[in-house]
Amino acid sequence: MSSIILAIVIGGAFGFTLDRIGATNPNFIIRMLNLTNLHLMRAILMGIGVAAVLAFGGLLTGLVDPGHLSVKAAYLGVFVGGLLLGLGFAVAGYCPGTGLAAAASGRYDAIVFALGGLLGAFAYMVTYADVEATGLLADIAGGKTTLGTIAGTNYPALFDVSGELVGLVMGLAFIAVAWLLPERILGSKGHEAPAE
Amino acid sequence: MRAPLSWKAGGLLLGIVFFAAVLLVKPIGVSTQFVILDGILWDAFDSSIVTESAETKSGYTSSNPYLAKSGGSYAKSVENPLNYSFVFVLALMAGAALSARLRGGVEKAERSMPEVWRVNFGDEPWKRYLATFLAGFIVLYGARLAGGCTSGHMMSGMMQTAVSGFIFAAGVFAAGIPTALILFRKEK
Prior knowledge:
By secondary structure, chain A is an all-alpha fold. Helix content of chain A is 62%, strand content 0%. The relative contact order of chain B is 0.11.
């Protein structure tokens, strides 16, 4: 029962935050990807950076139980799936989480996106055995690998260094990149991007 | 175009939420729940899809190999939707709805399509809906192939220094940036 309460609190906070940072607004996602407004890119990098610093700081101090980490396996399908997701992400301006949040915020095109998503997930369910037969799902780079060795876990490490320190440094680097990124890379304020 | 929160404040809040999830339960993920809802709907039409099993770790199995994988853990969630991950996604939607309502909701013109779509492709809703339906299809197919989405792989993965998270992010931006550059050339 307490896990359901946690689901409501953390899930609710996540949905609320997605809307507050503009991630339920496809204008922000599309303009992040066409490099004309990096607001969301900076928020995402900041988010990953802060989460990493807190998590690895917490692991070092014993606040965070290493058993709560859950590292996903690396395989070729991760990259191919990322390409497919990136394509649809750019067309719609939605990903699975922000699409559902946007649908709830009152965007009709996001409801349609979610329906397409249900069909796409279903298509994967029925083609899973064929996809597996291609070898796309076979582990690469050691499978559930992290950059460094994290104490209390048995995830293989890419480099033989302290995973906690790597995590802290990476987190700080993400925050620094968020800080250094410009508002936009292409075009300029008040000017139209060159038309075709 | 302004978001309710700056990237600094918003990013900080986002980071705290992702950290809180790891501290208290487990990393955040969303796209699996599309599979769970599909499974619930499928099982409602054909109750032989998910069945109890004494041989699997979860106590459930499925005639669908994807629902049956990993000891039937997806099959179990289909049979018991009141679990952490599924309720998490329902709460995510409630949280977004609450935030949107508090800021006065989405403008009428924006509800069917975002402005950036309108200036590039015109304002016929069917075109936008067709595009988002197809996009939703490939986004979720891709997310399931990858084993996670922007939340599970990119945010939760990279914050744990997971190599898979970096591979996923590379794929997303390698496809997403050129696609957006080609499709959305006009700004206003």
